[in-house]
Design brief:
This protein is mainly α.
């Protein structure tokens, strides 16, 4: 199965100064990324541009849109005339009539020269990843109400406990899909990018915001685009947006961006008075102003050095994170603790963070699905040759090399045990992701005692057919057997009630894992109807429960709306960990994903429940 590779490729590929790094769950609008008073709007913004034909702009929840008519073009200045030179001798030359200044160019006409019609992208279909590149089909949201889907996204609690559900949700959010009805394509992109930011997918969020032409930006998208640029540590990404944002989504954050962009463009003579004006008007102060000044000084001919002191700063915001990453300023560990978990994943994706400091957040990101197994291995490989890496990182890299490349099977197995924390320790899921392809190279006969961890490790990277080869070797009724029963893409028979009853529950919460195995097998259609009813009653799994969520999920699956099914499936997985996900919810999720052609992801999610419950 190649889903992991597609997901990692997508991963390679938190609003106008408004979302803090802590999760913004259930909010109608993001919070300010700046200190009190910093994110307040300046005088009322001018109205946004009229939406292009074919779109249906709506008023986004929690974000006001002006309704006044656009301002007319500025009148010509009376002195803007070309006066003739006086003749050498009075009366010798014929008088030359004055020439009036040309009328202002219509912005719409000018835009045609800046971006030809053939290069413009429609708001009817938005997203950076085509179906041929691993995205969902363009009709993934079908005829669903756009405002309904936006509300689901806005209220979704992220990050999710499931690595594979997170990978699938990212895939849906970055796909090149048709804009649903009753929403504007730019606003729909903003909601998708905002959710990706809360998931920790900073690079993917930026890609979604950049899939909309800047002349189609709305106030909501301006806000989210600022967050995406900050989350990726790229304040220069704000520069193409500053003129439109100052007109349609004016806020004090964009005032600071104007000064920073002047400095980055090598124009300190313009940046210096902008910074001075911002100080005089108290637009920003303290570390927020110093970081902005440091960005200005990083431009050509900046000629100023700014020292950043974090004393007295007790909250890490997107503004502070993004500008610190851009200027190479180290953020204290205690400030990271003040932010939401997604900041760890932003840090793992930031190339400005030293290798040694990236390893721990990178492992967290891999366990969440933000990084692939291959990307995490590459990071440790680079750390092995980095002189600044700590000894523990170097030791891990050496063990990893042994696990992958040593000629002795015993040496490879011992290295895997060391990476997992010892023979009698249940490894973290991130370490299983790290060793996935090393586990796939193990000899079946020599590693029966570690079969549960080896199978879980392989399936964390989607190596389902490799794991299925162990079916005749692993003991029936164990965790490894259960995961293979759920993940095998070539399973040709249904299991019986006796097969299900033989599962002991393995390591961890055995009773929960028994219910999860039943829910997964039933959702995948790998049990007979009679056995499903019998097992549901004996295990106490209410698979027939009916509520608003199950009805919405069933309706989306029946209508073939893969994108809506993925969002609703993620809604059903809002819990701190796998122990908080009801087995009946897993049954519904797996069945709905299969119904819309996402069988591979359904199998991986079901197997992950056994590995992590």
């Amino acid at each position: 199965m190649r889903t992991s590779l597609k997901a990692s490729l997508t991963a390679a590929v938190a609003v106008g100064a408004l979302v803090a790094l802590a999760p913004a769950i259930g909010q109608d609008r993001p919070e300010s990324i700046l200190p009190p008073g910093f994110g307040e709007p300046t005088p009322a913004p001018a109205p946004r541009p009229t939406a292009p034909a074919g779109t249906q702009p709506t008023r986004p929840t929690g974000l006001s849109q002006p309704t006044a008519s656009p301002p007319s073009s500025a009148p010509a200045q009376p002195g803007a005339m070309i006066q003739p030179l006086p003749p050498t001798t009075p009366g010798d030359a014929a008088p030359v009539p004055p020439v009036a200044a040309p009328a202002p160019v219509d912005p719409a006409v000018l835009a045609q020269y800046e971006m030809p019609e053939s290069a413009r992208r429609s708001l009817a279909t938005v997203g950076p990843v085509m179906a041929s590149e691993g995205g969902l089909d363009t009709d993934a949201f079908g005829a669903v109400d756009g405002q309904y889907v936006e509300t689901l996204m806005r209220r979704l609690n992220a990050p999710l406990p499931s690595r594979w559900m997170s990978i699938l949700l990212r895939r849906a959010l970055v796909s090149h899909v048709d804009t649903p009805s009753r929403t504007n394509g730019a606003d729909f992109a903003a909601e998708r990018a905002w959710l990706l930011l809360r998931m920790g997918e900073s690079v993917a969020a930026r890609a979604v915001t950049q899939s909309v032409d800047t002349n189609n930006y709305t106030p909501k998208l301006y806000d989210v685009a600022m967050n995406a640029s900050l989350a990726t540590g790229d304040p220069a990404g704000l520069c193409p947006l500053v003129p439109g944002a100052m007109r349609y989504a004016a806020a004090r954050g964009w005032t600071m961006a104007q000064a920073m962009c002047a400095g980055l463009s090598g124009n300190p003579a313009q940046a210096t008075p902008l910074i001075a004006t911002a100080k005089r008007r108290n637009v920003a102060s303290g570390v927020d102003m110093l970081l902005a000044q440091k960005v200005v000084g990083a431009g050509a001919q900046g000629r100023q050095a700014v020292t950043i002191e974090w004393d007295g700063v007790d909250q890490l915001t997107a503004w502070r994170f993004g500008l610190a990453m851009a200027t190479g300023v180290a953020v204290p560990d205690d400030l990271y603790a003040s932010a939401g978990p997604q900041v760890k994943y932003w840090q793992a994706l930031s190339p400005s963070v030293p290798l040694g400091a990236r390893l721990a957040p990178a492992e967290s990101a891999a366990g969440q699905g933000v990084l692939s197994s291959a990307a995490l291995v590459d990071l440790y490989s680079a750390a092995a040759t980095d002189d600044d890496s700590q000894s523990t990182a170097t030791a891990t890299a050496n063990d990893l090399q042994t696990a992958y490349a040593d000629r002795s099977p015993d040496a490879r197995l011992n290295a895997l045990r060391q990476l997992w924390g010892g023979a009698d320790t249940r490894p973290s899921y991130a370490r299983l992701v790290l060793t996935a392809r090393a586990a796939a190279r193990m000899n079946l006969a020599l590693a029966k005692a570690e079969a549960d961890h080896l199978i879980a490790s392989m399936l964390s990277a989607g190596l389902d057919r490799t794991a299925a080869r162990w079916l005749g070797t692993v003991p029936a009724g164990g965790d490894a057997w259960a995961m293979i029963m759920l993940s095998d893409p070539d399973a040709y028979r249904r299991l019986s009630y006796a097969d299900l009853a033989s599962y002991s529950g393995g390591e961890g919460d055995s009773a929960l894992k028994q219910r999860m195995l039943f829910a997964g097998l039933a959702g995948l259609g790998r049990l007979n109807l009679g056995d499903i009813e019998r097992a549901a009653q004996s295990l106490g799994v209410r698979i027939g429960a009916d509520n608003a969520w199950t009805r919405a999920l069933d309706r989306a699956a029946r209508d073939g709306q893969a994108g809506t099914v993925v969002v609703l499936a993620a809604i059903g997985m809002q819990a701190p960990d796998w122990k908080g996900i009801p087995p009946e919810a897993l049954y519904r999720i797996v069945g709905a994903l299969r119904a819309v052609g996402l069988d591979g992801e359904a199998r991986m999610i079901a197997a992950e429940a056994i590995a992590r419950a």
